[in-house]
Amino acid sequence: MANCMVFHTQIASIMEVLANAAVADICKLVDDDYAVFRLEITQSQKENRALRRKLQLLEMKVARERVLASPSSVKILDRYRGLARGEGQLTGGYRSFVKPAGHNTWRDDQPITVDEGSGTSTQHVIVIESEDAEAAGPGASSLVKQEGSEGEEDSWHSRDIQTGAASGVPPVATEDPTSPTQSRIRHRITEVSGMPNSALKSETDTKTLTETHRLLHTGTDHRSDPERLGLGPLGCPPAPGSEYLPVFHQSQKTVHSREDGDALETAVDDPSCSYSTEMDPGNMPLGLETQTDLSRGDWNRYSSSVYSEGCLDKKGEVIVIDEVTVKMEGDIPLTWNADSHLGDGHSQGRDFLDYRESLETIPNNVTHSPLHTLRDRDPVSTSMGPSDSHSLFDQVLNSNDSARAQAQGGRATSDSSKEKRFLCMFCSKGFSCPQKVEIHQRFHTGVKPFSCNQCHMSFAQAGDLKRHQRVHTGEKPYSCPQCEKRFSRLDKLKMHLKVHTGERPFACTHCRKRFSERSYLRIHQQKNHSTL
DNA sequence: CTGGGGACGGGGCCC
DNA sequence: GGGGCCCCGTCCCCA
């Protein structure tokens, strides 16, 4: 029996050794095959690249022959020339191509310096150019096709030169370099091949964006689909010059909504992954006029116009990009960076107001401020309960509020009858809507966005500013029917009427003296009965 | 002269 | 946005 057990043990150990050896062999085979496979792939890629280069050379020759055959049929366009000159603020997403001096034509495989925003890189490009382009003067620009075989550059910058069959289309070159609207109207440059003469066709945004839509799903262009963005017939706020520019968010969260309704929330650290829509300042919807220069980091007012797209896959798979409206910045300075707004004047306060209004109309906001982050999760759970977060500051505030509530009696009671889903993160006070919470929290943060343009005063509420401005205008719309006194406020008139009626509703509990105002009673008690 | 009270203006804040 | 209440400060009157 014991021998049998030893025998089984030996067999088991032998089996284990054999199994390990077999696994090692399999792994070795797999590794070898994988290396061979990779080698083959690399060779195939090289061959593919060489073939593609040959093909492009052939295309170049053909195109050059066409150009030489009919030099007047081609105009070299640069739809980004205006941007490259700085006519637009959004130069980050475009490249200006610098042509080496002394060259009449580009050569194949000639490196070209590509000025892309702040950086400079060397791109392998092939340029189709005609002599007419040179004759067009400095305004003429280069039509550039980036070599796609490199494959690693961000393809949404690439210019699309379509070589599809478009027979029957007459040669059209509508780009007018001197047009004042050049920087606003995007033109699509289309080379129509298969015709006796090369032609460049210019299209406006409509077709460009439509084509962009198509390209989105083929992975050849990574711009966002305007229709999917739900931005109107043209897919963007009806600004004729809509463009997309990269927004270099710093660790900004972006929600990628998918068509199945799931929301994928990711942290976008890649600057190239997030885009926003350039707005025509003259055609911005409500709130978008507050868009400011991103380079200044002025996120709060810009946020409502940001349409952040998902991390764009550069490998060409189908991209699903839905509209995401990023709301994050307005609240941050409003709450945490109040100093940056306190002295900015009245107009900025208006911007705040407009910004708020515009934001509230946008469904499915993605908020990133601490306040909104808390609120969005669960409005009720945002209550920072007394047990965990009540500092002395909170206690003071709450004591004030509770005292106020007690003093106001029925007001507080009736207030509690409503559903107060939105709680102040400072004092846990509940409000019926987010706007009220935000206004209320200004009292904690000291933010007063509404500044008087005639004095140094600033206010947390627009109504307070409006009321204050009667001090400067001298407007007193409320007149006493008993006398000729006039008042700027209705409550002051009502208070004044007590003079005529003799109404003194506030009685001292110590001396039975009566007063017309509660504050009079309080002062009276402080002065005369404080020792009691 | 001083202190209490009234009238009023203005801001804070909530509904 | 407007109404309303509270609070504070200032001015004035008067005992």
Number of helices: 17
Query: Biggest sheet, open or closed, and with what strands and sense?
Result: 4 strands, antiparallel
Low-confidence stretches: 70-418
Please state the average pLDDT score. 48
Given helix and strand content, the structural type is: alpha+beta
Quickly describe the structure.
With 532 residues, the protein is α+β, with helices and mostly antiparallel strands.
Describe the secondary-structure layout.
Blueprint: H1 2-69, H2 81-84, E1 95-98, E2 111-116, E3 119-128, H3 131-135, E4 143-146, E5 190-192, E6 199-201, H4 205-216, H5 226-229, E7 243-246, E8 252-257, E9 263-268, E10 275-278, H6 299-302, E11 326-327, H7 331-336, H8 339-342, H9 346-360, E12 366-367, H10 370-377, H11 386-389, H12 392-408, H13 410-417, E13 422-423, E14 430-431, H14 434-445, E15 450-451, E16 458-459, H15 462-473, E17 478-479, E18 486-487, H16 490-501, E19 506-507, E20 514-515, H17 518-528
Parallel strand pairs: 11-12
Antiparallel strand pairs: 1-2, 2-3, 3-4, 5-6, 7-10, 8-9, 13-14, 15-16, 17-18, 19-20
Helix pairs in contact: 12-13
The chain binds a DNA duplex (15 and 15 nucleotides) through residues 404, 407-408, 411-412, 414-415, 418, 431-432, 436, 439-440, 443, 457, 459-464, 466-468, 471, 485, 487-492, 494-496, 499, 513, 515-520, 522-524, 527-528.
